[in-house]
Amino acid sequence: MASITIRPALPTDEAAWTDLWRGYCDFYAATVPDAVTCRTWSRILDPDASVMCIVAELRGQVVGFANCVVHENTWELQAVCYLEDLYVSPDARGQGAGKALIEWLRNAMRAEGWARLYWMTHKDNAIARELYDQFAQADGFVRYVVR
Length: 147
Description:
alpha+beta
């Protein structure tokens, strides 16, 4: 099996990230305006923004990403990291990219002193939940969204 490299997103990753982002949005049947996509990418590259992105490379190609938000919270003294978006291209799945992205974030949590790393997924996303269950069990919370 080829080795996966995890690293912070670079400006040169924009086209690959955008293609993966579209696949991610399609997976969730979400319509995200181009202006939001452009703004998200600019925040990823802004060292002062709370949004960050790491990418997974396989054989020199970006095949996955993890978009995260590091933020303060009211339950701990340290910041926490919300893994907002995780996606691996369908042709690269099953080769360890998703697991490597989460492992990288878990190591960053320790190194940066974050109190916790957390994420959510759709209850029917069985394949992703198989991966996520290797790190932690779902905590039973139900999400409510007001728009």
